[in-house]
Amino acid sequence: MKDKKRIVFILTGVLAVCVISFLLTSVYLSKAAIADTYQMDGSILMRYNGNESYITIPRSVTEIAPAAFEGNTSLKEVVIPQGITKIGYSAFAEGPNLCKVEIAGSVTEIGSSAFANCPSLLEFSAGEGLSELGSGVFAGDELLNDVEFDKDNNCFVCLDSVIYS
To answer: For the whole model, what pTM was predicted?
Structure first.
């Protein structure tokens, strides 16, 4: 009976080591994949190198640098979650297939031309925190008829395809 207990104990230990090793490897590979996809400088997303159609920016990001996604032909939809405060100029400009953007309430500033020349852009929504909107943010986005600002946003409203501050 003692030998059976010892064997079970050893097998349980070996199984635990295997599971922990697998989990650590998965975490390492996930971080490596993020590092390959997102070029970072601290918490600033400097450049997106991926080719996904639909992405949610990682929560570790606090700022999207100028031109970080500029010219990306794969991206169709992007969600910018809570925690990000700034989107740099031309950050998503020249995105021919970008059609939907959702921005959380923590974003306070969107730089000039951030979404310019995105001919497929149809849907854009921004949260309550947005207080600075650069010039020409939507220049050349002919299909974008309505920009939705959160009802609690005290700085901007869109009426009849015109943004008022």
So the answer is: 0.78
